[in-house]
Amino acid sequence: MTGPVVVLVDPQMGENIGMCARAMLNCGLTEMRIVRPRDGWPNQKAIDASSGAVDVIENAALFDTVEEAVADLTRIYATTGRKREMVETVMTPRAAAADIRKRESTGTERCGVLFGGERSGLTTEDVALADVILRVPLNPDFKSLNLAQAVLLVGYEWFTAEDATPDSTVDIGDSRPATRNEIDIMIERLGRGLDDGGFFRSPDMRPTVMRNIRMLFQRSGLTDQDIRTVHGIVESLRRAGPEPRKGG
Amino acid sequence: MTGPVVVLVDPQMGENIGMCARAMLNCGLTEMRIVRPRDGWPNQKAIDASSGAVDVIENAALFDTVEEAVADLTRIYATTGRKREMVETVMTPRAAAADIRKRESTGTERCGVLFGGERSGLTTEDVALADVILRVPLNPDFKSLNLAQAVLLVGYEWFTAEDATPDSTVDIGDSRPATRNEIDIMIERLGRGLDDGGFFRSPDMRPTVMRNIRMLFQRSGLTDQDIRTVHGIVESLRRAGPEPRKGG
């Protein structure tokens, strides 16, 4: 995977360029291009703020104009929150991420995303160079993102567009999931203890209550270690004998 | 929509708390809780860095322990990149966002997300208080996010989980899409001009080439203004007459 080129247009603070590099590498993006950085280049503050994404900073290419920075690209996306008086396709970062993945997979396309500077974002001329406007869905009453955060969201969508992380898993370390038989034995032992302790006022309620108790344990996704723990709890509580009466 | 409570545990720099507030409000989240801020509270740097999300800062509640900060919540998510030696459900922010939306829609649940401080993140004890571990899918070789960026990604997923923004649209400002008949008339006029200019070497190729030209225009999603522009182009080019021969 290569991923889109990140083009920073008129960025001001070196710290922000560095934080962009960090956000890029968080998402597996490595190719940064910079157009007219206000404070010159190279910039030590950018390196300091990159939190280790130094390669991204050191390999960043410098350009005098946006046209030169995107000359070799086949598909250009411009991030902007403002509405423009022009006719252009507008995509969410998620849709654009899928679009970029599809185009890059052909091997003939190279995509880039333009990000405007801190002060005023991209000019209308910059946006007109792009094929697509990228607009992040955010709180309409407070939608101004800082530069590195805009880069992070676009990169994150690109990264997760093909990431195979399951939505939800259970980490069980060195344990293994309990077998149904292990759960049965544990529930039976618990049930005997409850019988002996007079838990069930009426025998009629026993099946329902025991089923609810079983469900309570099953919902938690028991491991072999959990089973041993519950056995230990049952044994200990029985051995402990009755609690002393309050005030008795 | 209310959204999850954001709980910052042992945050250090006021600037980072401020940037968290900004990221929260970007995503429509407003309830911040802070456990043991290193540099005290209130913190002017937090207000300065919030870029206008001052209400979030001023309404933030302060706590001495994580237990107190989450006491009224029904469902707690802990953000951590590190693997822990415990059995716990792990979700992506996207799956957790859907989970939070579903739970909050019942009106009986209140969710919260724990974020650890800049230095070392959440302790294992903090994580054990949570029902679910939230792990952001990122570059496995460079996955450390700064605090505000972690808050942003979780908030962004929560916001977009019910955001109705279409994946892709075309902004056409004050224009309206061209009708099929307007396109037909434009293409016919263009065709006449090409006939007069000897564009078609062989009459056989005319239907195919004209169809390709029509597709080229249709792909761009023409507006009524575009149609007028193309009419003007055809008219002007015909009026301009032949280009002078080079070197002639």
Automatic annotation (TrEMBL), chains A, B:
Q: Which GO terms describe its cellular component?
A: cytosol
Key words of the record: Methyltransferase, S-adenosyl-L-methionine, Transferase
**UniProt domain tRNA/rRNA methyltransferase SpoU type: residue ranges:** 5-156
Q: Name one Pfam family in it.
A: SpoU_methylase
Stored SUPFAM superfamilies: alpha/beta knot
KW ATP-binding (keyword) present: no
UniProt cross-references to Gene3D superfamilies, sorted A to Z: 1.10.8.590, 3.40.1280.10
Top-level taxon of the source organism:
Bacteria
Biological processes, Gene Ontology terms: tRNA nucleoside ribose methylation
Q: Which GO terms label this protein's molecular function in UniProt?
A: RNA binding; RNA methyltransferase activity
Q: InterPro entries, alphabetically?
A: Alpha/beta_knot_MTases, RNA_MeTrfase_TrmJ/LasT, SpoU_MeTrfase, tRNA_m1G_MTases_N
Give the record's family classification.
Answer: Belongs to the class IV-like SAM-binding methyltransferase superfamily. RNA methyltransferase TrmH family.
> What name is this protein filed under?
RNA methyltransferase
